[in-house]
Design a protein that fits this description.
It is a single chain. The strands form two sheets. The protein has a five-stranded mixed sheet with strand order 2-1-3-4-7, sandwiched between helices. A two-stranded antiparallel ribbon has the order 5-6. The chain folds into two domains: 110 residues, Dna Topoisomerase Vi A Subunit, Chain: A, domain 2; 65 residues, no CATH class. The protein starts with a strand and ends with a helix. The protein has eight helices and seven strands; from the N terminus they run βαβαβαβββαβαααα. The chain is an alpha/beta fold.
Length: 177
């Protein structure tokens, strides 16, 4: 059981998560956020913590950022895109129980202290920027580290803001090879 409240986008996402694990869930109803939803998320964060678990798409990322900007210290779970696809649709509701549990087992806490452990040169040196398959490599390393997929800028921010250690990064790069 997870003690934090899990924030997802919709009812179908909530149903999929409830099949995988017993937890309290708040749905955002998409990007619109019905009245009082953000207040509920803030209260949940104070009471027991929050895990943001949005779809691995553009809208999900916007919702994640919106919550993160207003509610400090959130935890984040990321589902790999290919594990969330079904008939061209991307969403947590399409993921298997195993995939959901795996994503929740790799939860990362957003760091409010600005770190500069990782720099663009780290991404270039390891082929995560500038190669033909850099996007695929970032996707794989993101899965291993539990920080999800991101473009180069997002990925660098996640490495620095989600407490990834140099050792974890190096291990993920070795697994990639």
């Amino acid at each position: 059981m997870i003690k934090e409240v899990i924030v997802v986008e919709g009812k179908d996402d909530a149903s999929a998560v409830k099949k995988a694990i017993k937890a309290e869930i708040i749905t955002t109803g998409g990007f619109g956020f019905p009245k009082g939803t953000m207040d509920r998320i803030k209260e949940a964060q104070k009471r027991c913590g929050v895990i943001i678990f949005t779809d691995p798409d553009f809208a999900g990322e916007k919702i994640r950022k919106k919550i993160s900007n207003e509610v400090k210290g959130c935890k984040h779970a990321f589902l790999p895109r290919e594990e969330a696809k079904k008939d061209g649709d991307i969403g947590i509701e399409n993921a298997s129980t195993k995939s959901i549990l795996n994503a929740l087992s790799k939860v990362r806490t957003e760091n409010n202290i600005i770190r500069n452990e990782f720099k663009q040169v780290d991404l270039i040196k390891n082929g995560l920027i500038g190669d033909n398959n850099s996007s695929d490599k970032r996707d794989e390393v993101g899965k291993i580290l539990g920080i999800g997929y991101g473009n180069a800028k997002q990925f660098l921010n996640r490495l620095n803001n989600y407490g990834v250690t140099r050792e974890e990064f190096n291990e993920a790069i070795e697994k990639l090879k």
